[in-house]
Design brief:
This protein is an alpha/beta fold. It has helices at 40-44, 49-57, 62-76, 95-102, 115-124, 142-149, 169-178, 201-210, 250-255; strands at residues 6-8, 23-28, 31-36, 85-89, 107-112, 131-134, 155-158, 184-190, 215-227, 233-243. The protein folds into two domains: 6-57, no CATH class; 62-263, 3-Layer(aba) Sandwich (Rossmann fold), CATH 3.40.50.150. The chain is built from nine helices and ten strands. The longest helix has 15 residues, at 62-76.
Length: 266
Amino acid sequence: MRTRHRIQFPPLEAHQLAQDEAYFYVQEDGRKVRLRFHDYHDIYRRPGLYEQVFYDRLKCNSPQKVGEILQQTLEANHTRMTELRVLDLGAGNGIMGEVVKRFGVARLVGVDIIREARDAAYRDRPGIYDEYYVADFTQLADDLIHEIEGWQIDCLTSVAALGFGDIPPQAFFRALQFVEPGGWLAFNIKETFLDHADTSGFSRLIRELIFSEYVDIEHLERYRHRLSMEGLPLFYYALVGRKTKQIPPEFLWELGVAEQAAAWEL
């Protein structure tokens, strides 16, 4: 049985914080501990807390939504899910991995920048991942690059992990480079990231990719990601596309979001 925590959301005035600054309280040993929504190190150390906050209380459904869209898109393109070798970027404690594993993918490799995420995935969902790397994708060692390349990745997934600084543009771009031409991409992003008023590096990267020669978009759908603390819907886009060919490092240079792009041997 999953551990149940005593959680409390803050007063209404705190709800005006940006999505990546929102916080909640958890009662532990007679004291009230304050945790930000993005304090993943501390949240993952507590079994079941992530699911209780985001899935039970805030009704997040993104892993299932993105997984179903990926499956439907593959079927429409006469491709079997069971043939995919998936890299799950920002894998966390394995919720998205559990979804694609249920669909029967051939291989599943997780990656996250924090060790607590991998520990939580192994603790809460043992056997989901064939391998799980703790790594910073903006500065990968050569031996790890070769090891990941050995998995022959033909699908990249990333859910509820993009665009808030958790995964910078360079890291997402590096993950894209592991996907073989003809492979698949399945991820979600906050709806404002497709707005030209958003000038952040990640937003520009996604918009340029969508309209580039390197990715064909197969499915783009606006949907309710989860609820806010006050019960209002937060909308995201789910995107499934196909990588048409390898993306040159200069692509990041042109966007002005990668100082190290020219030094990469991709």
